[in-house]
Each structure stands twice: as structure tokens, then as C-alpha cells.
Design goal:
The protein is an alpha+beta fold. It has helices spanning 11-14, 19-28, 92-103, 117-130, 164-173, 193-206, 252-260, 280-288, 374-390, 401-406, 427-430, 433-449, 491-494, 500-515; strands at 2-10, 35-46, 53-62, 84-88, 107-111, 210-212, 217-223, 226-232, 237-239, 243-245, 266-267, 270-279, 306-309, 312-320, 324-327, 337-340, 349-358, 396-400, 422-424, 459-464, 471-472, 487-489.
Amino acid sequence: MVKEIQLRITLKEEQISDILVIKSALKLDISKDDITGIKILRKSIDARKPKIVFNYKVAVFINEPLPETSEYQFDYKDVSKAKPIHIIGFGPAGMYAALRCIELGFKPIVLERGKNVQDRRRDLKAINQDHFVNEDSNYCFGEGGAGTYSDGKLYTRSLKRGDVRRIFENLVFHGATEQILIDAHPHIGTNKLPKVVQNIRETILKFGGEIHFETRVTDFIIKENKIKSIQLNDNEEIAVEKVILATGHSARDIFYLLYNKQIALEAKSFAMGVRVEHPQHIIDSIQYHCTGERDELLPAASYSLVQQVNGRGVYSFCMCPGGFIVPAATANGEVVVNGMSPSKRNNLYANSGIVVEIDVNKDLPKYEKFGVLKGLEYQKNLEKLAFTSGGRSQVAPAQRLTDFVEGKLSNDLNSTSYQPGLNSAPLHSLLPKLIGSRLRKGFQAFGQKMKGYYTEEANIVGVESRTSSPVSIPRTDTLEHPQISNLYPCGEGGGYAGGIVSAAMDGERCAEAATNNL
């Protein structure tokens, strides 16, 4: 017999090795000896009150053994001689599209503009140390996409778009820790993600798929409303039958290519703002009600904040406890910041994007001349502003949080995890009023919600501008583009995902659609 129950375990109880067995036996009114095993289904922390509690959902196996294998099995088969599906981009959407193609008996041929994870590291080093951006290999482009060198956060609200558990199980199959199947807000960590991504690559190659790195798509040859061939950066032209476009939200050249070919695009609302960085101990003390170091059983504390300001949402985005701020520009002449965390989340700082909703149909009247690309052009201009105000390198403009809200230049800045460095700049006056004024009121409100959050010990760093795509690529119910019948816009770049898991699920859906009736 198997019984699923909920348990609440205090911090003190959590230190007892067999506490789940003890508590389960008490709750079910059975002997401990009758419990042959316990499988943790979900674990979360309730820190709303000073007495912190771990919430567990467990499956208790009574007089029967735990299953040794997962109920999810991945049936990969040799597709080396099967019909091809071309996939542009090898981020989460492209990777999972390729894996699903193999399961369905089709050969994925992946075209990725960036490098593999090992070679990509050199280009990341060049951004951090030399302030040089390789426009095809950076924190956004390359094997695994933007997710590879990120926190690897797997939390998603997109529960109706696909089988979330299947995505997680496939990550475990490729080397991720089983802890992601349990945690309420799972993450893998930037130090472990590259190996998982490499394992996915090896699976695709082992079963007959192809992956071509440093291969950028430069043109689509279209006839009779179908892509007949793809032109590459070395002028090679390859014939295609079905194309899954999974290029991510930063592949601006693809948006321009489609726009110039008069292929339908749509302007999409998005969000922009800054990164805020606190010493991690401040966030711990607020969230865990502690005065010294947090208990060793507790992870680095995180937060989620939202406030309506003048008709627009101001909210935290991609919060990275115990993490780093990194330079996420995809071209020289721009500064973009993002956050990441190692698996242990043991850095001294906590950072989060704090961004403002931008209604692309109401908020950008001066950019109407750019049509559906107005949000993209607005985004670019703010990134150029950050570049010049930072000192025309990857040094980022920054300000103490309190100085930003009070409207004065910071005489000095707090220490930071951002390797290229910070330059004191008057972000309160440089940021457009649309964003800056709402951020200032938002931070004040956050300080009321989290006592101690509003502090001069925090920096804000500009700009956090790549929260999502400012352009979407329309598709029909069959997931095809309404004009181009064999083009399947996919993932974050198409406007159909907002993170690793939702992009992966969309990749699978597009693979299923593209292989249907082929």
C-alpha cells in the first residue's frame, strides 16, 4: 500500500535523520517497522513566522518496496537515416525539440550560431575581463542558450502547456540532481548546468542527430509561402522541409530578417528596469527573522515582490540568492545585466531584476515609426544609454538604492559581484520617467513590505532589459506561422515561453507539430 500525506517538520526536527519515518508512522497510526520506504514528492519552506517549518508531501510505502526506476522512460532511437527537421537555436526550446524529434523517429539538424559550452567559457571570460563581446558567443548565445550560464531556475506557472514533470525527469536523465523533482522552487545552478547541456548534446549525436555550432542563419529562401532553403554565415545554402525557429529573445538579427522580408511579426509588451544587489545576510535576516547567520539547514533566502505603480506593475524578476550579476550584452556598445547563482547559492550577495511593465501599445509613442519593432528599438536605446553612462565599456552604471530613490548621485558604491565593475551614475535622471519614477516608488513600497530591504547597503545596477522578447512571431493553432506554412516559431524568441521549463515544453510541442503528417 502507498499513502500520500502532508507533514510539517520544524527546524529542530529536521536535524533528526529518520524524522520523516517517525512523523509518517504517527500520522498514519502504524508501526515504523511497517514503513518500507518514503519518497519525497515536494518540499517547501514556510518562513512567514519566526518558527520556520518545512512542508513535505511524501509517499509512504507500507509493506511494499519503493520502485527502482522512474515512471518516465525516454525512448530514443537511431534516426541517422530518418527524415530531417531543421532547428535553429540550441537553447532549452531547441534542445527539447531535438530530443522530442528523436523520440518521434525524425532526425534533428540543429543550427546554433554560438559555440559549445566548453569553448563558450573563453568568450564569457573576455566579456568579464576584457570587456569585449563576441556577438555570436556570450551569456545569451551558444550551446544551451541563455539558460546555461544562469541560475537554472525551473519554477514555472505554465502548467497547462505540457508535462512539467516530464521536462524535469529528462533533466535528471541527463545528469541533473533528483532534488529538482522535490523542491517547490527548483534550480540546477550555473556550475552544474553546462554538464547537463553537454549530456543532452551527446544524446542527440548518439542517436543520429546533427548539431552545427558557429552556424548562424543569415537568410531564408522563400517560395510559394514556404521556406525552401536556409542560407548560412559561410554562404552555404541548405534545403529544408520543416523549420523550428528557437532563436531566443535576444536574436535581433532574426527579427530584422523576418521584418525585412515582410513576414508577419507583432509588437509585444515586455518589462525593463535594473538589478538590485543586497548583501545576502540582509535578505536572510528579513526572510528568516534572524539576527546572525541563518541556520545551516536553510538555503540562501529569496524573495518575490510586486507593486502596482501608476497603472503598471513593478516586480522582481529572476531573483538570484547567493548569486552574481553578469554582463549579458549581445553586442559591443551596449550594457545589459542579468543574474545567476551556483548550485549551492553560497555567494555573499543576493540580486534580482526589478522591472517595470511596458505596454507596447500605449507607452512608446515616440517609437511608433519603428512599427512592430518599436519595443526592440526602445530596448536598444536604453542599453546604449547604460553603455555610455557606465563609461563606454562593460562597466555598468550604478547607484546606491537610497540615493536612487532620493534623487542624488552616489559619492561611492557598495562592493559588488559584478566582475567588470561599476561606475557611479545618476540613474534616477538617466532612466526614462516611464521606468525610473515607477522604480523609485516601487522600491519604497518594497521597503515597507520587507523591513530592511530599503537600505544604503544595496546597489542598483543598470540595465535589466532582456526579461522577455519585445517582439512576438505569430503562429496558428497548428503552431505554424500564418504566412510561412513550414515555419514553427518556438520558445521565448517567438513569445511563447518565459523561462527554461516553458521553453522546453514549447520545444516539444513544436517538434510534435512539425513532424505531424511528414
